[in-house]
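Page header: ASSEMBLY MODEL / two components / 395 residues total.
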Amino acid sequence: MTRETEQLIGRLGAQLAPVRPLSAPVLRALGALLAVALLAAWPVMHFANLQVFALRNAELHTALECAASLLTGIVATIAAFHLSVPDRSARWALAPLPPLLLWLGAAGAGCLRNGLGHANWDCVLFTAVVGTPLLLLLFVLLRRSHPLAPAAVAWTGGLGAAGLAAFLLQFFHPFDVTVMDLLLHALAVAGVLAIARLLARPLLR
Amino acid sequence: MMVSAQAQEQEQQWAAWMRAAQAGDARAYEQLLRAVAPFVRNLARRYCREADRREDVVQEVLLTVHRVRHTWDPRRPFSPWLAAIAARRAIDLLRRRSRIERHEQHDELASETFADPAANNDDGEERSLADLAPFLEALPVRQREALEALKLRGQSLQEAARSSGQSVAALKVNMHRAVKSLRRLIGTET
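Prediction written out in full:
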């Protein structure tokens, strides 16, 4: 043991303060998802047309797309909380891929039926305006664990926020997705992921 | 079987100390840090050959353990948590070093020329060297080798690497450390 290391141990011992261990990542993720659900409940109940939402979800491809975006949001959020602590498997970064592929597949199949369509920038705006605060909320909760691999946490956290925002968009998007919509949705999700990457260093370190 | 029983015992001891440390017991914490340092040094061996760098990894890991000690779940084993931090920090340190070395250029004059013209006067060179001798003796061997080869014998990095058996990168790091150590030693003396 070098003298510097011995001195460092002495200093760390002198600075020690009691800490409360963090709860299990899955519990923290479920807490975050519950907070998102509570925040989203009021606007959905007051501004969304739930009858149209129910009618649209009677069709298999819409229901599948809706469920897959929600599942992507949930799985990616859980993965982000697991990746934020040191001793969890790095494979959690891959966990959101199956629901993400299902989401892209379902949206792709739906838009092939509906043709090219017109660009509807409202969807991009909605995903960005809803996705960014969700992302900030997740990052504030994730930074408590000072992640050692912020890039992986940013990718999964960003995908979680984007998936949840895309699911909420379904309540306010009363028409079938076209090719143009799919491209714009992909652009919006990529935008949220880019914001996540940018915020990773200042917020998660 | 014997090794496994010992490892289990060590794991239990470390976990007990860490639980106490999370509750604020500084004595248990220092015991834990002293006990895990050789384990971390051993893990660091996989990532870097130089002893100096391994010690840097050990110190980085101890600092990180301190910062993220609340992320260890007392219901889970302690060693995998520590090993994950050690691996991550060793890789981070290697990346940081290689970034620095990629942009670092060896300039013979950089550390020999000063803003004050009097400091560049070679008149007192021999006397200064004699004054420096006890400080040079106090340096670690590899740092002294780097300083003597590059600054006193005026060898190029490649020549110094051949004569000392150190890599060019190690020479640069040891040279940098030697200057830092000398500054510290001289500063303490005066």
